[in-house]
Amino acid sequence: MKPLAAEFVTSATAPSHFPPGDLPEIAFAGRSNVGKSSLLNALLGKKNLARVSQTPGRTRLVNFFRVGGGEKKSAVCIFVDLPGYGYAKVSKVAQEQWGPMIEGYLSSRSVLRGVVLLTDVRRGEQEEANLVRWVHARGLGVVAVATKLDKLSRGQRAQGCRDLETFLGVPVIGCSAETGEGMEAVWKAVRDVLSRPRGSSRLTV
């Protein structure tokens, strides 16, 4: 399912600002500066649809994007860009606000089908392994993606992905928003998650 149309819907700071849940949703989660916005832009074929910043933690809202496909470009799903967590250079108060907002979205959004978890291929964090288990326990699909593959040599890439698979306990797709490597595999995994109702998902790649 290569999208033929994609557009920004809205940004939200609280559940009351979330748009009506009339389409299945896929959330994108990961540490600050892991490359979520870059991956979203690459997947959707839009250069600046999701804002890319060199400053960790710049994405401070839950951003919703409508994705269309097919000849009539009818909307098929919503991609949701969650605020990055971890070492964002923002106030402690702001980080404390993000946590409940992200957890609230993941816990209560009935149209959510799965989470694309982004991890820098060069490192894995315990927060990410915890998130895999937390999401899976709620019957959601998990697509684990190792980003920034282009930062490693070809010989190091496969080993980096294998190390992450061992650490996270799930299959990992290696990809690069810069070169486009792995994007087809990510789309295939997203399609698989979207094809299953919530509650029937399994750990997936």
What characteristics describe this protein?
eight-stranded mixed β-sheet, alpha/beta, 205 residues, Rossmann fold, 32% helix
CATH fold field value: Rossmann fold
Quickly give the structural class.
alpha/beta
Number of strands: 8
CATH architecture: 3-Layer(aba) Sandwich
Shape: globular
Please summarize the sheet with the most strands.
8 strands, mixed
Alpha-carbon Rg, integer = 16 Å
Average pLDDT works out at: 81
Name the CATH homologous superfamily: P-loop containing nucleotide triphosphate hydrolases
**Residue share in β-strands:** 15-25%
CATH class: Alpha Beta
Summarize the amount of helix as a percent range: 25-40%
Count of separate DSSP helical elements: 5
| Uncertain ranges | 53-58, 87-91
How do the helices and strands follow one another from N- to C-terminus?
EEHEEHEHEHEHE
Number of domains: 1
Distance between the termini: 16 Å
